[in-house]
Amino acid sequence: MKRVYISSTFNDLKEHRDKAGVAVRKMGLLDVAMEYYNAEDKRPVDKCLEDVRSCEVYIGIFAWRYGWEPEEENPEKYSITRMEYEEARKTGKKIFIYLLDGKHPWPPELVDENRGVIKRLRDELSERHGCALFTTPDSLAAQVSASLSMLTGDAPPPEDMGKYMERLANRYRRIDLEGLTPPEKEDHLQLQLRIIFVEQHVRDNRPPIELPKDIWSTLQLERELCADDLPAHISQEEIKKLSDTYYGKKAAPVLEMLTDPANPHVIILGDPGSGKSTLLKYMALSMIDASINPRLHSFYLGAFPLLIELRSYIALKKKYQDCRTFLDFCDHLSESQSSFPDKKALLRHLSERKPTLLLFDGLDEIFDPADRETITREIVGFTEKYPDVRVIVTSRIIGYQRSILMNAGFKEFTLQDFDEKQVNEFVYKWYSIVLADRPQEAQARVKRIQEAFKTAASIRQLSGNPMLLTIMAIIGKNQELPRERWKLYEHAASVLIEHWDINRHLKANHVEADFIGGEEKKEILRRLAFKMQSGEGGLAGNYIHKERLQEEIEEYLRERYQKIPDAARIARSMIQQFRERNFILSLYGGNLFGFVHRGFLEYFCAMAFIQKFEKTRELSFEQLRDEVFGEHCDDPSWHEVLRIIAGVVAEGFTADIILFLAKRSWSEDQAGNGKFPYFLSLALKCLAEVRNLQMMREPCKFLLERVFNLFNLTNRPNDGYFSFIEEDIITPILTIDSSWPCVDVLTDFLKISRPNVKYYSIEKLLGKFIGQVGKNEMKIKKNLFLNLREMEFFSRAMVPFALVQGWREDPDVFPLLKKLALDDKEVVMRYVCTEALFSEYKNEPGMRELLIYQVKKDKEPLVNLIGMMALATNYKGDPEVFDILKKELLDKKPDNNHVRIIQLVTQHFADNDELLEFLCQLAQKGGMESSEEMRTASNYYVRETSMQRLLERWPSHPKTLEVLKKIAENDPFPWMRERAAEMLKKL
Fold this sequence. Notes:
Number of strands: 15
Radius of gyration: 33 Å
Helix content: 55-70%
Distance between the termini: 49 Å
Structural class: alpha/beta
C-alpha cells in the first residue's frame, strides 16, 4: 500500500487536513500526518523527515502561515513545514502542492503578521510545481482525490495507446496556418502550439443576446449606448440590462475552470476562430508532455486524452452502419490508422476506471440539426455510462441547443475575446519566433500592431478573435499596419469566404450552385455593405432587414446569372450560412442583420466604391471626391470607409483628395457651437495611408497651416474642443511616421505666427504635434531650444513634450529637461519637464533620484504631486518608495490630488506589510481633531478613499472594523460619521 505524507501548518488547516486524510484513505492509500504525533505545530523534526522519506507521495497544503522554525541545526531558518517539503524534493517523492486561493476570504488571525516569508514560499512553489488552488475543506478533498486518482497513470499506457498519444503529439504540436496564409506569400511558418498559446478567459453561460461585435465592445467598455447605435425598435435599456448582468460577472482564466474538480463535464462555446479547437489541442498535448503546462498536467496526472473531431465522427457514422458509438469510431480508425487505440483497449481502460479526458471538438460542425441532437445525446449517454471520465465539448454559439447538455449537468462557459494584454502577449510570442534572427524588426512589428490596436477601433475588434489576430500577425509581417489595413481586411474576408461552403450546404438540399465562387460572394457582400450605408441609419446603422437582405441577394443572382433557378432558395441558404457558419453577419433580433465586425462592413463598403470607380466606371474621380468624400467628410462614422478608399486608389488621386479636404472652409465661431473641422481629421487619416509623403508637399503644407491655426483660437474654446484636438487631430498625426516634406514651413510658422496658446492641455498637444512633424530635424530642435530662453515667441510649456516626442534619442534632450525639472524658476516648467521625462525616460538612470528629489525637496505641491504619481506608478513594490509616499501623505496637508496617490499606492503596493496600518492612519488623519485646517473637502476625500480601500482589501480584518467603528462613533465631523456607518453595514 502506497504511503502518502500530508504536510501543513496545524492550527489554521486542521479541518482541511482532516478532509484530505479521508480522501487519501478512500483511495486505498495510507495517510501519514502530524495527527499521529502531537496535535501541534512543534513536532519532532527527525521523526517528520524520516516519515517523509518512508512515503512515496508528499502532499503539501499551504495557506498564509509559514509555521514553527526549529532553532537547532537550522541555518536557513526553515519552518518544519518547509523542511518536510525540501526533504520530499531531495528524495524524489511524487509531490502535490495545494495553495489556498489568494482571493478566498481567510480569518485575519490565521494570517502571519509578516506575510512576506510565506508569500515568497508560495511563489517558489508556484514556479516549481503545477499547484492546485483550494478554498473550502471539501474543495481541497476533491483536488486531492483528483490528483491521487491519477497515480495509476504512472505506469506506461498500453502500446496502442502510447502510439496514439505519440501520433496526437505529432499531429497537433504545430499550428495549422495553411488556410490563413495568403497564397502569394512564400512563408511556410512552423510554429509550436505550446509556445504560441495564450490562455483566454471565459464567462459563465453564453451572451444573452446576439449583437455585432462593435455593439458588445461599446457595452463592455463604456457600459452605455448612444441613440444611433441600435435600430429604433430595439430597447437600449433591455440590452444594457442584459449586458450588465453578463459582464457584471468577472471573467476567469479558462484553464482555471477546466481544472476545477466541480466541473467534470463542460461545454466551451465561442465564435468561429475564437480558439476552441486550439484549446482542446493544447490540453491534449499537456496530458502527454508535463513541461507544456505543469499545472494542467498535474491536475490530470496520468489521464489518457482522447480527442474526437465530431465532423469526422458523423461522416464515418453515415458511411458505415456498424459505426454506432464513439468506441466503434475509434475501432474503425484503428484499422486505417494503426496508432489509434481500438475499441477493446479503450473498453478495458474505461472499465478499469483509469483516468480519461474525452475531448469532443466541433459539435456545431454537425450541420443537420437532427444529427446534432443525436450526437449530443450520445455524449450524455457516454458520461452516464462512464461517470469518472472528464468530458469537454466545444461548439459555436450560434446553432447550439443548450437544453440537452445543461440538463445532464454540463457547465457552460463562453470564451471571451482577447484583451489588450493577451493581444500583446500573442504578438510578442509570434514575432519573437517568426523573426527570431531579426529582433529589432520583431520589436517594430509588435509595436506596430500594438499601435494599431490602440488607434483603430475596427482593428481592435478584429484582434480580439485569435484566428483574425493570427491573420493580422501574418499580414503584419509584410504590410504596414494600421496603414494598408485594407489588405488585412481583404485577406481576412477571403479566409472567411473560403469557409463559406454554400455548395455543400445546397447539395444536401438537392440544389446545384457550383457557379458561385469567391468573387461572387465578395460582390454580394459589397452590395450588402453599400445598401446598409445607404439606408436610413447610414453607416452607423449597420443593419438590414431579412426580407431586404433576401431581395438583395436574389436580385444579384438574377442580374449575374440571368434565368437562375431556385434563386430564392439559394438566397435563404446564403443568409443562414452567413450567420451560422461564417462569422460575417449577426442577428440583432426582429429579423435585422448586421456585419459581425464593423471593420468588414467598412471594408466591403469601401470596396463597393472602388469597384464603381475603377472597374465599372460608374463614378468619375470628381464624383468620388465631391459626392463621396465631400458629402461625408464631417461624419466620423464614415472616416474608416473613406480612409480605406484613400489607401487603395493611386497616390495621385489621394493627394488631390487630401488637398480638397484641407482647403474646405471652417471658422473659429463654429467651434463655439461644437462644430469642429472633422474634415481635417479625415485628411490626416488619409495622409497616414500614403507611403511616399514626398509626393505630398502641397497637401502637407496646407494641412500644417490649418492644424497650426487650430492651436491659435482667440476665443476660449469649449470642452469638446480639447478632446477633438487630442483624439481627432493628434492621434492620426502620431500614426504618420514618415518624414514630412515641408518641415521648413513648420519652422516659419513657429517664428512668424507666434501662436497664442493659453491652456496647459493644448500646450502639451501642440508640443506632441511639433515633435512628431519635425521629428529629428535639427532646425526644429534648435528653434525649440531657443524658445526655452526667448519666451516672447510662445509658451515654453509645450517645448518639453515636443522634444521627447521628436528627439527622444538625442543626447542633449534628457540632460536639458532634467536640469529644467530641478532648477527652473517657473513651477509649471518643473512640472511639465518632470511629466515629459517620465512619459519617455521611465527607466533612464537618474529618473528615480530625480522623482524622489521632486517629492522630498521641491517646495511646490504641484511638483510634489507629479513626482509622487510617477514614483507610485513606475516603482511598484519598492519599499523605499513606499516609505517616501507614506511619509508625504501623512505629514503634508491633504490635497484633492492625494486621492489619486492613495489609489496608486493601494494598487501597486498591495503586498507591502505596512499598507493596512498606513490606510488606517490616513482614514483617521485629523479625525480626532477639530482644527480648522482639517475641516476641508480635501481631507474628507482622502479619509473616505482610505476607508473605502480598507473595506475592499480587508473586510474581515479586525483593524478595519475597529477604525470604521471608531470613526462612526467618535469622529467630530458628521459627514465622516455617516460615511463610516454606511461602510460598517457592508461588513
